[in-house]
């Protein structure tokens, strides 16, 4: 399974969940990301990053740090996975991580930081891999200790365990954490709170069952995911496997 399927899944996933809400920062960032892919341009995301940087410079808060980091992370995905610009991608992901590190008492920031840290491993040395993997796990665990109802924290734990080698316990906690995530609410009704994650949980769970050769469970959760998120491209692509 290509890593891009999982890495981009949470970046494109929340459009359906936000249809009935006023367009917030998350949706603007995700729409810009899709626009950049479709038009082979980096401008739309960069414009949002510039605006959010000005906002952050004027008012340094957990929220302004989160959304600027979320944008930088999408710029890293665009640079690495679409445009094949690895050095540029590493610069973006390092910037995204740096923005979130002062927010270590915020569950949502820690969940995103966990995923970003795991993603950054591909740009670092072999010797840094284990330390970064453990950092990613610890951030997700702390996110859960701060908010046991945070589905994105459960998702972060699951994706960390999914990519951990089996010799180090990889794959053993993917199912339990994803099923915990499925039991959680998608979002808060507060403006500009993160809502991403639920459909990505289905994508990762189906891929986990495929990897474990549990075809009946893979089909069950794929059908369930598609019923809830019929426009999700990652889930639709899984029907071809």
Description:
This protein is mainly α and 241 residues long. It has one domain: Tetratricopeptide repeat domain (Serine Threonine Protein Phosphatase 5, Tetratricopeptide repeat), CATH 1.25.40. It has helices at residues 3-9, 25-39, 43-58, 62-82, 86-100, 107-120, 126-146, 151-163, 174-182, 198-211, 215-228, 233-238. The longest helix has 21 residues, at 62-82. The protein is globular and about 50 Å long. 45% of the residues are buried. Mean pLDDT is 90; it is low at 1-5 and 13-21.
Helix content: 55-70%
Radius of gyration: 17 Å
Question: Distance between termini?
Answer: 10 Å
Mind summarizing the main beta sheet?
none
Question: What is the element layout, followed by pairings?
Answer:
Elements: H1 3-9, H2 25-39, H3 43-58, H4 62-82, H5 86-100, H6 107-120, H7 126-146, H8 151-163, H9 174-182, H10 198-211, H11 215-228, H12 233-238
Helix pairs in contact: 2-3, 2-4, 3-4, 4-5, 4-6, 5-6, 6-7, 6-8, 7-8, 8-9, 8-10, 9-10, 10-11
Quick structural summary:
The protein is mainly α and 241 residues long.
Could you name the key traits of this structure?
241 residues, mainly alpha, Serine Threonine Protein Phosphatase 5, Tetratricopeptide repeat, 0% strand, disordered N terminus
């Amino acid at each position: 399974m290509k890593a891009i399927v999982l890495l981009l899944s949470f970046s494109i996933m929340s459009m359906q969940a936000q249809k009935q809400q006023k367009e917030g920062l998350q949706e603007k960032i995700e729409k810009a990301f899709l626009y950049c892919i479709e038009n082979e341009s980096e401008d739309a995301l960069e414009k949002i990053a510039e605006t959010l940087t000005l906002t952050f410079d004027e008012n340094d808060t957990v929220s302004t740090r989160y959304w600027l980091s979320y944008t930088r992370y999408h710029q890293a995905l665009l640079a690495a996975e679409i445009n094949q610009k690895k050095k540029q991608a590493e610069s973006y992901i390092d910037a995204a991580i740096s923005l979130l590190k002062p927010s270590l008492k915020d569950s949502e920031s820690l969940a995103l930081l966990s995923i970003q840290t795991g993603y950054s491993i591909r740009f670092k040395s072999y010797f840094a891999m284990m330390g970064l993997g453990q950092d990613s796990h610890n951030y997700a665990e702390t996110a859960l200790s701060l908010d046991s109802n945070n589905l994105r924290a459960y998702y972060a734990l699951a994706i960390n365990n999914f990519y951990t080698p089996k010799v180090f316990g990889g794959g053993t906690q993917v199912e339990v954490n994803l099923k915990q995530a499925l039991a959680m609410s998608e979002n808060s009704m507060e403006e500009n709170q993160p809502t991403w994650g639920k459909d990505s949980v289905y994508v990762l769970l189906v891929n986990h069952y495929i990897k474990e050769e549990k075809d009946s469970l893979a089909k069950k959760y794929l059908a369930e995911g598609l019923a809830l998120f019929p426009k999700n491209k990652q889930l639709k692509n899984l029907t071809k496997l």
